[in-house]
Design brief:
CATH architecture: Up-down Bundle
Helix content: over 70%
Order of helices and strands: HHHHHH
Number of domains: 1
Structural class: mainly alpha
Largest sheet: none
Distance between the termini: 56 Å
Radius of gyration: 23 Å
Shape: extended
Length: 167
């Protein structure tokens, strides 16, 4: 008969405490963090200009994809991915969380796209149009109820397209 041992609780060391300290060398400089946050806040007015430029770039890449040769598709999809990735990265920093969600969704869609046909064109253009809508309506944050509806509708179209690809 095997005797059951009492469970042993092992507490891992708090090694992060030894790496980050308050005050002294190597410490987190709260003033530097505050200054960085102020710089980012000061740049928020520029975000709308930047993202509108990115939307022009991504639309041009998409237009080239749609009218281009199949051998150019990978390169153009990579361009779309890079711009969508930039949009994703900046959105949350400037209180446009929907742009982060949309940029991420477009990145994931492009990553999974092996061949480009009418369904893929439709989804990519829908992502771009949705990003344009968010910016034109200044749907900051999560976009509220309207933002929720927009994202839900987009998800349904993307899911429908994914089901077509699987068949």
């Amino acid at each position: 008969m095997v005797e059951e041992d009492e469970p042993i609780v092992i507490k891992p060391p708090h090694s992060i405490n030894s790496k980050v300290s308050i005050g002294g060398a190597g410490a987190v400089d709260l003033e530097a963090l505050k200054r960085a946050e102020e710089v980012i806040a000061g740049m928020s007015g520029n975000y709308l200009e930047w993202v509108e430029e990115d939307l022009v770039k991504i639309q041009k890449a998409f237009d080239a994809l749609k009218s281009g040769k199949p051998e150019d598709h990978k390169h153009l999809l990579d361009q779309i991915f890079r711009v969508a990735h930039d949009i994703k990265g900046q959105g949350g920093s400037f209180d446009y969380g929907m742009m982060t969600i949309l940029g991420n969704g477009l990145c994931r869609f492009v990553e999974q796209t092996q061949t480009v046909g009418s369904s893929e064109f439709q989804v990519i253009q829908l992502y771009i149009d949705t990003m344009k809508l968010v910016i034109s309506k200044r749907m900051s944050g999560d976009g509220g109820k309207e933002g929720e509806q927009v994202l839900r509708g987009l998800d349904m179209v993307v899911a429908k397209t994914a089901n077509k690809q699987a068949v």
